[in-house]
Write a structure and sequence with these properties.
This protein has 225 residues and is mainly β. It contains 4 helices and 14 strands. Strand 5 and strand 6 form a beta hairpin.
Length: 225
């Protein structure tokens, strides 16, 4: 499963990729996070999420949330002991962990990314000293968007993104799943549509993609997305 991704873009570039001319300076309001990864109980690693605002005419807004829905799972040593777990990928959408957010349009969001990683099947260390990855990006869009879900938690708002079957491009490297990636024309349906309409969008990405083993650079996308 994808447990590392990068968003090397400023807020203005992300919002422009959503079809909005930003009402703020290109370097406002959130600094780019670069690489996002789960942190569990440690200090939350926040990632940018785009969702409908609850105010006025409900325009899109960008907020920072923690990556991973909190839940409890039984310990392998003692099933009576419950351990905290933060789940980043929403795969079984029939699970109560995800169902409440999926059914409510206001709890859906879109998660911007520039690259996402899947574990390299050969293992080992990558050029950054971390576990070796295969990195994927969209060929015709500098900023892509995962189909995301969010909910309030005791630690604040948290998000995850939906996964689906891998497409032909990802499958040779990761045969189990890939993030559900939305085309820009599907943003409104995902954010506002019915459960059936939203579920229809959870499918392997059909657009052109690129991949590489090297850790992507930190070159920032400013506002020309």
């Amino acid at each position: 499963m994808c447990n590392r991704y990068r968003i090397s873009a400023k807020q203005a570039a992300v919002m422009r990729a959503c079809g909005l001319e930003p009402p703020f300076a290109p370097d406002e309001v959130f600094p780019p996070t670069r690489e996002i990864f789960p942190t569990g109980k440690k200090t939350a690693r926040m990632g940018p999420v785009v969702r409908r605002s609850s105010a006025g005419n409900r325009p899109l807004e960008m907020v920072l949330m923690e990556w991973g829905f909190p839940t409890q799972v039984p310990s392998k040593r003692n099933p009576e002991v419950k351990l905290d777990k933060y789940v980043t990928n929403a795969r079984n959408l029939r699970s109560p962990l995800w169902g409440g957010s999926l059914k409510i349009p206001a709890r859906r969001c879109i998660v911007p990314f520039t690259w996402f990683a899947e574990p390299h099947p050969e293992g080992g260390k990558g050029d950054d000293g971390k576990p070796r990855q295969m990195w994927f990006a969209l060929q015709d869009q500098p900023i892509g968007f995962f189909a995301g879900l969010w909910r309030p938690t005791e630690r604040g708002e948290a998000y995850a993104f939906v996964t689906t079957s891998p497409n032909d491009f990802v499958r040779p490297w990761h045969e189990k799943a890939m993030p559900a990636i939305l085309q820009p024309t599907a943003f409104t349906t995902w954010l506002d549509g019915s459960l059936d309409e939203a579920t229809e969008l959870i499918r392997p990405y059909a657009g052109a993609m690129v991949r590489q083993e090297e850790t992507p650079p930190d070159n920032l996308i400013e506002i020309d997305a």
